[in-house]
Write a structure and sequence with these properties.
Strand order of the largest sheet: 2-1-3
Strand content: under 5%
Helix content: 55-70%
Number of helices: 5
Largest sheet: 3 strands, antiparallel
Number of domains: 1
Radius of gyration: 21 Å
Shape: elongated
Length: about 200
């Protein structure tokens, strides 16, 4: 098994997932495609945490770029061993994977809190902008008849639930891939970049 090729494969997957996270987080800012709720600060506090843009996005793009660029790390070796430079590059990819774990973990936590807390909306009950589902601890997710309590933005519950769920899944996959790369990087660093001779 080639550790370097595995790392690059993980890198390309992380690149796609990070871009999807950024898009999903941006969509959270514009319920039903309207900009006025963002400009009037009528969005959930968890939307403004930038967990998809910063956490699942840019902090995951860093390891993605490192993993994809591993084949360019033609270090000159050390102690007379030409493979040593590439092995060190694989070990250094573990640090990049840790950054990805922090970013994806942040994305997962905020997404879970956003789902549990519910949307910020104009409720006909209090005739004000409130969090009508905070006391339910996520129970509102299965009580569809209560979703109509949010009058504005229209369909905000469905909008938030869908996008926060997508970000939760994307962040979870990113976390798993970064964890796999930690193991792959350690094994690749200890065993050499490639088990065969085509990349040596």
């Amino acid at each position: 098994m080639c550790f370097g090729r595995c790392a690059r494969c993980i890198g390309y997957k992380l690149l796609i997932l990070a871009l999807l996270s950024i898009v999903a987080n941006i969509l959270l800012y514009f319920p039903n495609g309207e900009t006025r709720f963002a400009s009037e600060h009528h969005l959930s506090k968890y939307v403004e945490c930038l967990h998809g843009i910063l956490g699942g996005g840019f902090l995951v793009l860093i390891p993605a770029a490192v993993f994809i660029g591993l084949h360019n790390d033609d270090c000159c070796g050390c102690f007379g061993h030409e493979d040593c430079g590439k092995s060190c590059a694989m070990l250094s990819s573990v640090l990049a994977a840790c950054i990805g774990i922090l970013g994806s973990g942040y994305c997962v936590i905020i997404s879970a809190l956003g789902l549990s807390h519910g949307p910020y909306c104009f409720s006909h009950l209090g005739r004000n902008w409130i969090y009508p589902f905070t006391e339910s601890s996520g129970g509102y997710l299965f009580e569809y008849n209560k979703w109509s309590e949010c009058q504005e933005p229209q369909n905000i519950v469905q909008w938030n639930v869908t996008l926060f769920s997508i970000l939760l899944v994307l962040g979870g996959i990113e976390f798993i891939l970064c964890f796999i790369q930690i193991i792959n990087g350690i094994l690749g660093g200890l065993c050499g970049l490639c088990c065969n001779h085509e990349e040596v």
